[in-house]
Amino acid sequence: MIKKILSMFLVSVFLLVTVQSIYAQPGGFGGRGGMGGMPGGMGGMRGGMGGGMNQKASYVSEFDKDENGWLNNEERKAARESMGNRQSMGGRGMMGRGGRGGGFGGTSYTEGIALTPADVKSYFKKESLYDLETLRTIFLEFENDDWEAELEAFYRSDVEVPAKMIVDGKEYKNVGVRFRGNTSYQMVGTGGKRPLNLSVDYIKNKQELYSYRTLNLMNCNTDPTFMRQVLYHYIAGQYIHALKANYIRLVINDENWGIYVNLQQFNKDFIRDEFNTTKGARWKIPQMSPNGGLVYVGDNIESYKRTYEIKSKDDPNSWKALVNLCKVLNETPAEKLENAIRPILDIDGALKFLALEKSLVNSDGYWTRASDYLLYMDPTGRFHVFPYDTSETLSEAEGGPGGGRGGRGGFGMGGGTSSGTMLDPLAGANDYDKPLLSKLLAVPSLKQRYYGYIRDIAENWMDWNKIEPLVEQYKLLIAEDIEIDTKKNSTTEAFYSGIDGSEQETFNLVGFGGGRGGRGGPGRGSSISLKDFFEKRRAELLNLQEISQAK
Asked: Which range scores top for mean pLDDT: 54-58, 288-292, 478-482?
């Protein structure tokens, strides 16, 4: 009887986690609201049983009456009216939409101070858009006062809302704006800081901002320091091709919305910067993608198209190359794998990618669910792996994704312990669904090389004496803005305490691992500052004999 009850409980948990993860979108079963001070209290789930997490609703083709490829103001109004009628007939979901002014854990949002382009410093092209010592201000001017409601309405659709953008005194007309993200959007209420995507060339072809066409503005909803993503990408850039990240200040319709992390887009601009070409094939492996860890599931290309989201030309030859990579990785004996895969995979880059994830504890990386990472096949046919979702890094989430105490949503990942600063370097290495880990590390020489990269990261980039000057540089750049930011999802005290523990206020990182919540509930991470994380994690890694003796 006990076994039967336990079995039924586990199935229920699995179904709850799956449903909430998949349907948290317009037309879905998830959304904002629920327990633990989620935005708007019992706000909740928008729409009925809609499409999957990675699908977008399509409205442009239906409402684009002038057939120019985008929706103007009148066309968007018609689309919203139609959406409202459909929702009134089909229901808005289980509990309706979350209310304004409530953030996770009771965060309150108020109106930001007024800012104009004359109030801020202007820079020039010589300061890169991703320069870490530069704090540019992006001004967005929307046509309608209810711009936020428009963005909410078209979240997870093919509609972008045009706005005039002003940067360094220069105007960029008809920039496409949309809300982006999954939990980083769902966990923040109306009026709060939510992640944005800006398409500079949305309507005006070839329009660029300092040679870049797309911007991702991240809200750092789980990080009161606003530094974890920036630090992760900076350190990753010392070892592999990695997306760049820095800071911007955002002003919308003359209202200051505060600091955002400006994370580089994975597009031709990135490939141009890193590989001096725009050719090749690119894939994004979204959250909750089945078999997304490079598992070989046969030669049928369609089986892979359901998992890997191609971001470049949909070329059959590119898919065949991806299938071949999976086949070689999964079916080649360990003693022959290195020689067999070397021509088609940047092995050192892959090992460094894995070492960075483990050393810096990326709780949303490849090693947890075998998703949320990026693939690029260069013109020679060689694959490269990059980190993508780095919003939950450099932290010590209770239970840890995949840990012995339940892991993400209550299911362990296998391959060793995985709790915050105690994360086992081999966590996930026995998992068939993660062949980049399990197959590469089954080769003794590659495992030793992997250990060597972890040792190098720990010794050279986890020393607080080396990292602290970077942290102080970032703090000097953004602290004044953080203090007056009325849209942030934490407190000013948590910002300072989260850096080095100097403030006495306890702070919590919003987490999704561990026994209290999993991916199906809010959960809470443990309180740990950046300083504590670097010192504890470095000591833990260098105390491991296999790491300290690696060459």
From this structure: 478-482
